[in-house]
Amino acid sequence: MFHAQILTLFPEFFNSPLSCSIPKRAIEASLARVDCIQIRDFSTDKHRTVDDKPYGGGPGMLMKPEPVVAAIRQARKRDPQTHVVMLTPSGIRFGQSKALEYVEKAHITLLCGRYEGFDERICDEVDEQLSLGDYVLSGGEPAALSVLDAVIRLLPGVLGSADSAVLDSFTEEGILDWPHYTRPEVFEGKRVPSVLLSGNHEKIEAWRREQAIIRSKLWCKNHQ
Ligand code: ADE
């Protein structure tokens, strides 16, 4: 079974998203297990402190090393196979290939930070640093949730139709998905492309590939 552990100051953040739709089904079917670990439980002072001011001055607070490192070690103890990933804007960029890699690993721990970031010594305790993109979130939790969702839906047996994940955008060597249409045939004057109504499966297949290539080229142009 796929096992994710989430180290966070806000375990409640994950309650509702994991009790909906695909993640809910995967967890109920015992295809995935997600355990949240409260980092604050590893603080040893009476105020349960997890943050402190940066040496050298500057704005904001940092995650203190002691409780975070203790939480990471607890996650490794609970699941010795786990691969520990720190969510941070300075990490390597997450993408579909990384999601597939985590499916293979099957044991991951996602470390979520708050405040201005982590004490640098925490970085020595993790296996990888991962970013969702070039923007700063108010914490690692939304990033961890996106990673978890992208991975869970790829687990064998999670999606209804056998090939719906195989045909996803990006899965097939960076090719985007083709445009999709459902009823009605005409919506506000916009028609469904006639080839899709033709019943000619060869033609439909060719049209879809062509459209996917056009989209992918356009995507590349917009991301230069
Ligand atoms: N924490 C804050 N911003 C983040 C980002 N862009 N990716 C991952 N973790 C983050």
Q: Could you characterize the architecture of this molecule?
A:
A hairpin with a 2-residue loop joins strand 9 and strand 10 (190-191). This protein has 224 residues and is α/β, with parallel strands linked by helices. It is elongated, with a radius of gyration of 21 Å. The protein has 2 domains: 2-152, SPOUT methyltransferase, trefoil knot domain (Alpha/beta knot, 3-Layer(aba) Sandwich); 175-222, tRNA(m1g37)methyltransferase, domain 2 (Trp Operon Repressor, Chain A, Orthogonal Bundle). The mean pLDDT is 95. The strands form 3 sheets. A 5-stranded parallel β-sheet has the order 2-1-6-5-8, with helices on both faces. It contains 6 helices and 10 strands; from the N terminus they run E-H-H-E-E-E-H-E-H-E-E-E-H-E-E-H. Helix 4 (96-105) packs across helix 5. The structure holds adenine. The site of adenine (ADE) has 11 residues, from strand 5.
List keywords for this structure.
224 residues; alpha/beta; Alpha/beta knot; Trp Operon Repressor, Chain A; 2 domains; 5-stranded parallel sheet; 6 helices; binds adenine
